[in-house]
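Exercise 7 asks you to align residues with tokens for two separate proteins.
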Amino acid sequence: MWFGHISLPVLLVLPTWTASSTVQEVQVVTVIFGDALANGYTIQSPAYNVAFRQARLQYPDALANVTRHSIYMPGTFSCQESAALVPLLAMDLQDAIERHHGLSVLISPGCSLEVANLGDFAREWNVPLLAIVAGDASLKNIERFPTVVSFASSDHNSLVEATLRLLELHAWSTVTLLCDDLTPGTLGGFSAAACRALTAGLAQNYPKFTPNIRHFNWQSAGMNQTDLIANMLERTQTESRVIVIFAATAVLLRRILIVAHRCGMSQGDYVFLTLIPPKAPALGTVDWRFGDAEDQVAFVAFQSLIVIHNPNANWGAIPDVLQEIANETESIYNRTLTAEQFRSDLTIAGYEVVTSLAEILNESHQTLDLISGTTFRAKFLNRTFNQRSRSFFIGDNGMRVCDVVLNRLNTTSGYLQVRLLTDSN
């Protein structure tokens, strides 16, 4: 077995199907650390299984010689911990790649830090690495990541560009960023990456914009959450009237806005922006209604909020896919999806990675013996993938390019309403 020297438990799932004939063989290896709520083993694997099964029916010849393995390390890991574990698997992954006589393709649903570490090894091995969740702007560095393609449905580059345009449109030059990038949680990685991306974007446009950056982690602050937020906002009030919130959960976002209201910051003098990913279980639903005693205050507080995000998948176009993934989750992994998990954009992004890979393999399976990691990656670039869930474009830097939606609260309906949609094209 590959992993004899590793003390941490690792499960190797046997190939989903086996190769046949003497045509060039391809092995697809999914690498998953832990079983996180949004991008862990039992929430992601069913989508891969369904996508591979459907792709094999669609492209029987192209996928006849594809084998699939899943490397899963059980446990509960933060983004930083998962990234630190990558080198522990590197020797065994390299052994698997070298023993395979054909093209190897790595797939990772890990956070940006994890994928960055894995991408460094993929560069040295010259094997393609398809990232499902990771969307940090650093991944577009082709010199460091010449084999990485990011399919993240949350595109930090587009979110930052839309935010900068909004700031410029309203002549908001001084901005404060509240970055919840230290709080443990499955979306802590997104918050940190988005904060870094916007910080860099603001710095690149200095002196047009003057940013103030505040990092916080209320769980280790030695005070209760409300007091920490109040103290932070009190300092913020003297810095800027435009505040960008990076919160790992909708609960924390709502709490910050409620405290801001009680600090007198929801009277029209301050505006709050938040950058969030598409629909993800770990985030929860961004809403003022929680059915508690603070709903009335939250309703007023949310009127100062602009929500900036990339669009969700077209759920109405894929009910059969969603149901098949749910059935797979229950029958194979003994897990029943919640309503939030049933429509998770991160899960559908995993499905989209596999179907896109199958499309490329169908076009290339006759010439795979001539393809390296860098040349295989190039086949994804400057290309639109038209899928049932949605159409999306992979740019020349290997990053998915997404539209951006800006939402404000409609005080009549009580729901967030699209106020502006920016076109990635």
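Second protein for Exercise 7:
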Amino acid sequence: EELGQMRENADVLRLLIERESDPALLFTICAVCRQWKALVETHWRNLDFQDTYAPEGVLLAVPRIVPNLSGIYLSDCLQFTEPTLIQFFSSSLAPKLSVIDLSSCSFSDQLLRVIAEHCPSLTSLDLKFCDITNDGLQCLNQCTQLRKVTMDKCFAVSDDGMPALSALPALTCVSLRDVHLSNRGALALASCTRLEQLFLSGCQRLTDEGLAPLLQANQASLADIDLAYCSPEGESLRALAACPALRSLCLRGCFDLDDAHLTAIASNAPGLEVLDCYGCGVSDEGVAHLALNCPHLKRVVLAGTMIGDAALDALGRHCAGLEDVDLSVCTVFPAAVTRLCTALPSLKRLTLEGCESLGAED
């Protein structure tokens, strides 16, 4: 019945093609009729092989079947060997690819060099959990349109690879979570001046010496920052307070964040929507300023902080759009939690794990 309806209305099929990225659906459509195959060739833009376990021959057939593809997602596709990946990224399709996801795939720096040579339109490259090295990154200077690079948990990458990233003229997003990065690498990245997203959580060797110059160089543009379990201190926290475009900020485990710093950050970031200060040294005073200055908050993590009922009342008064609030291991009492829930019509998730005071009488 569904196939019959699709035959009667090519627009429905076109819409399906534009929204779906499943290789199995693609090959099914192409097998039905020439008209459908033509629609695939014209409109199919993204293809996601994750969890499909498709054989290598299917991947190699893609350039012929979907000649206008712009995004290829191969996360966790360990069935594709490096020679097959090299053949695919050397095909006639390669110049049109703008988004490539190879996270958790198995390959060497050689494939990275092939991609850099054959994919001039590349804007986003995901290499999470890959065995690339600093030497492999040197070829990225050919990717002049590359805006987003993700290399979380690439354990062979270190400070020596950062000059290659900083040389990318269009770079606006860099994700280096749990990479062996120190202040030397952060200083190399400080030559980037248009970063909008900076994700460095787990880079525990970073301190003010490297973080502050990197943040200061990108204060006007930074919107999303993750410095969880780094060591930002006074100078870095003051640099964050001068980032007016902040939309999300994660300072989980950053023990130097106190009420004064939180107040300064909130005062200059009216568009802040997400804040994670798990385990930081903030209390009711800082959260009161946060709530007053950041009315668009949607998610806030205050777990393990020194807040009490006054913080909850402030959030309830000023942040009606909150959807997710984490108060784990905080000293808050039932009446204040009830008032908060009543004041937040959009609340979808409230986490209260380890709040021993909730067993006490109000």
